[in-house]
Amino acid sequence: MSGLRHLGASVAFTVAAGAGAAALSNDYYLRIAFMMCIYYLCGAGMNVLVGYAGQKSLGQAGLFAAGAYGVALLTIRTSMDPWLALVLAAVISGACGVVIALPSLRVKGPYLAMVTLAFGIVVEKVVSEWTDVFGGASGLFGIRSMTWGGVPLTMLQWVWLALAISLLTHLLIRNLVSGRIGRALLSLQADEIASASVGVRVYRAKVMAFVVAAVTCGIAGALVAQQNQYINSDFITFHLSIFILLMVLFGGVGNIYGPIVGAVLLTVIDSALSSWPAVQHFAYGALLLFALFVMPGGVMGVITPWLARRTKRIAEPAPCSDIALRFSDDSTGELLSVQGISKSYGGVKPAQDVSFRLQRGQVYALIGPNGAGKTTMINMLTGLVRPDSGQITFAGRDAVGMPPHTICSLGMGRTFQNLRLFGELSVLDNVMLGRHSRMRGGFLSSLLALPLARREEALARSRSMDLLGLVDLAHLAHAPAGSLSYGLQRRVELARALATDPQLLLLDEPAAGLNPQETSELGDLLLRISRMGLTILMVEHHMDLVMRISDRVMVLDYGVKIAEGSPAQVQANPRVIEAYLGSDAALPSVETIAA
Amino acid sequence: MKPLLELESVEMAYGAIQAVKGVSLLVRPGEVVTIIGANGAGKSTLLKGIVGLEPLARGRLLVNGQDCSRMPAHQRVGVGIALAPEGRGVFPDQTVRENLMLGAYTSRRNPARVQTLIEQEFERFPRLAERQSQLAGTLSGGEQQMLAISRALMSEPKLLLLDEPSLGLAPLIIVDIFRSIRALRASGLTILLVEQMANQALAVADRAYVLETGRVTLEGSGPELLRHPAVRAAYLGTH
Asked: What residues have CB less than 8 Å from A548, skipping those under 6 apart?
């Protein structure tokens, strides 16, 4: 849905909901409507965390508490304006979000869930046991709430306020996840190593997702505290954390409308069952188990395929000249220098005092037997593996110890031997992720969909389509990358690496899985890219490709550089033949077999 | 002779994308048959269909005349089909020996038999014997490919499917791998080989099929296709 249509539809939906609420006379129903908005707020942020960044949290009740107790203490102990207190409560829970994000930088999956669970329990214990400050089970009274023209808000006005905040949250989160940042978060879920290698600052993106989830949850907590004018430790239970997670899963994780559906349906079910407290928990659990079993993608997972019947139109890129795609000017000189680099893993030594230099604009090949240390060399150059000793100078800067995303933004792009694509994302999104480090729009401009972010998004899209045209994949732009064959996925990786605007392109076995004809086409493409001003270093076993396009060939064996020179020199080198090519100088050619 | 494997108008799809559009082929006992074709032609998909990792949308799959179209993957191992998958797929955190034992999962109730099979594989690939207690993830690419083939052979298959055994291997090692394929063929094993190194594959194959966008467009003996002008232009890189 386009931006304006979506905005119109969202406002219309909210106004209709507000009008519907006005028709309800009963405070009980109004309260249910209010709680729907509250749970939506909790779910919306949680969806960014779980559905986009792929980080599970079971401690959301703790963040809810941070907001609720924050607003309570601020309005009871100070004479602060209640509106301002609401804003500060959001800030407080955002800070707590940073705290629970820290373990996520070290632990993953179930371990992270356990850590967040512990956070929730600690908060629950603090607010129930530290009675001097938090009042424990008897709670805190006298929370001041907002007024409208000096009069406290009526229940209907509370619903309207919650609806308005929900609408705003929905619009902001949609902006946030529909562009650069949403893509970066989804890439974390798929493959953190690949994310870092295309320039995503992995740690910062994770912290951001936790903070978004914390802020919405904190606002929800603060609204509940102010509406009730009372809060006690009974509000903060493990059950609440579970409820928030389930709501997101039930509605449809990773879908922007999932939390709305989840919040509405589960709040209704919860209220309907509240008349039979004896069966409530049982029925509730059974229903959820059943629902998640038959709809693993949640309610939205069932509905979306129906809505998406309209086939996406694929814009064929206009043929783009090589000049328009140029990567760098025709500067010459040294681009990369590697001095005496060594690395060992216990007894295995994939690099022993290796040195070489790469001149701008040339094509280099690194060859050698399997296990010679070629991939380790690429990993050291790109910052994934730290060398034990030696120096790497890239574009005039010392690159040892730099994180991968920094090296990427200095102009080093790479592909991986075993393909690290974001399989669930479309081919186009994969390539656009390559633009990540080249896009200036940050958190705020994405959140508010400022013109800068929108313009950059459009630019990135058109550049990515051009690159897909270059590798002849434009017709598959909207297919999930994981659905492509091995050889085509390699071309997606190449386009993604090119999207980072590299000066040096590192290719780890680009021709693996290609037949001779396709290998020869890849050779043409690489030569063409090289003429666009790119320096290429490739690890490759297809000797026909290596000999045809390389200006210089380096040979590694057991971590030692045993030869370097022109393709012809290397091919004739007895040490290379013995270690790598084989005594009858490679495989029988077609002619000899067919003859 | 009755075919060991027979595909009748097999169609396969990933969602809306049809990857295999009515393929019929057969493999007779003792033959080496190869499927060549460009990337995305549906070769690996077809192998996945044969071992049961992806369902057939239409058509029939017969093994020794028995219809196995709906048989789950783990049972197809029992009727004698084994796959050494693309990218090798060894279990990296288990030792070479453990990988081989997992390959003999169907004979797990007969430890003596498993032991004999392991000894046989160690004889076939002495490198694996040297490395038997090493974790499979620490092997070199060529050794992992040997292990993948050996693991497939542990189920004592009648038909061995090899998906791109040369992938990512150094020239010297590729020669070794094709030497092993020739030795397997000499021992009488039936092999269906998918390989990008079309010249190598056609040189070891009795018969071959060319797959283009999910359809068989050519078939013939290995030497015939090696000389076929269209095959040479499209797959052998000689114009």
From this structure: A523
In order of B38, B181, B203, the CA distances from B26 in angstroms are 21, 20, 19
How many Å from the N-terminal Cα to the C-terminal Cα in chain A?
61
Q: Is the dihedral of CA A197, A200, A204, A208 positive or negative?
A: negative
How large is the ipTM? 0.73
Task: Write out pLDDT tens, residues A381-411.
Answer: 999 999 999 999 998 899 999 999 999 989 9
- What gap in Å lies between CA B131 and CA A305, rounded to an integer? 50
CA angle A364, A369, A372 (to 5 degrees): 80
Give the distance from residue A515's alpha carbon to the nearest chain B alpha carbon, in angstroms: 4
Strands A230-231 and B17-27: unpaired
Angle at B95 between CA B93 and CA B100, to 5 degrees: 115
Q: Which CATH superfamily does the domain covering A334-594 fall into?
A: P-loop containing nucleotide triphosphate hydrolases (3.40.50.300)
Could you tell me if B111 lies within 8 Å of chain A, comparing CB atoms? no
| B199 contact residues in A (CB cutoff 8 A) | 516, 587-590, 593
pLDDT in tens, A306-325: 766 544 555 555 555 665 66
Q: Do A485 and B173 touch (CB under 8 A)?
A: no
Residues in chain B: 239
DSSP B185-223: HHTT-EEEEE-S-HHHHHHH-SEEEEEETTEEEEEEEHH
Q: Please identify among residues 8-47 of chain B the ones whose CB lies closer than 8 Å to any CB of chain A.
A: 14-15, 17, 36-41, 44
Pairing outcome for strands A230-231 and A140-141: antiparallel
Domains and CATH numbers, chain B: 1-43+52-80+158-239 (3.40.50.300), 92-156 (no CATH)
Which residues in chain B have their CB less than 8 angstroms from residue A479's CB? 17
A258-273 and A298-307 helices cross at what angle (nearest 10)? 130
pTM (2 decimals)?
A: 0.81
Asked if A345 is an interface residue toward chain B (Cβ–Cβ < 8 A), one would say no
First to last CA, chain B: 38
Q: Identify the CA nearest to A509 among candidates B43, B141, B156.
A: B141
- At A327, list the tokens: 């990567």
pLDDT in tens, B130-161: 999 999 988 888 899 999 999 999 999 999 99
A448 in reach of chain B (CB within 8 A): no
Domain ranges of chain A: 37-267, 334-594
Contacts of B226 in chain A (CB under 8 A): 590, 593-594
Task: Decide if B40 and A484 are in contact by the 8 Å CB cutoff.
Answer: yes
